[in-house]
Model the fold of this input.
Amino acid sequence: MKRHVVLLCACVLVASLAAAAGAQVSLYGQAGYTTFVLDEFNDVIQSINADGEGGPGEWDPMPEIRGGWLVSAGVAYSVAPNVSLRGGVEYLNVGKSVGTYTEDTPTGTSTGVSTLSSSALGITVGAAYHLPVGALNLDLTGDVGYYRVPLHYDLTVDGAVDDELDAVGTGIGFQAGINGTYALGVNFDLVFGIGYRFLTVSELKDENGDVVVGFSGDPLQMELSGIVGRVGVAYRF
Done:
């Protein structure tokens, strides 16, 4: 996390220096929603649900995860009338899936809770080509990013941790899309867009450095590719 904060601070510094030199610079912040493929991740959820449903108690199943919210921030720098370069950080909330198992025993009701969660934090750089269309500016965008993806699983029984796993993987992602920019004032713009992200984390390793495997016996992959929609504001100076 600290490295991403340092990068963002460096982007702000570069933007300030570029603005002082007379270049067109903008700082932006956006929020939105993204879909995920996550087939193998959801296979794990389905397997946990199958085990829970096969028990003598009642199982409130874990929902599959197919999307989550995102936030991003960065700086863009115009290198030509219709071309700009940009860099920033992006956080993807992959989400949390929780299932609960309850069973009546001679000593009372026993409760088990299974939790599987993940997120992604990335450093991104890219470029945009501007196409003025009336009051709007349309941008054709392309970005590449380096993402760190943690995964957490735990099983608690009557409040005590019975099983736990923490793992981390990394991957290179690519995004392509179309953005629209509408001027809100002299220095502020409304920015919105849609695109597609390609991002696969081919393996994750636990705290011991061992590769995490799925129920198939192969390394567990996190497929975070999907459609991206976002909206935000930009400040030009």
Observations:
- Helices lie at 2-20, 39-53.
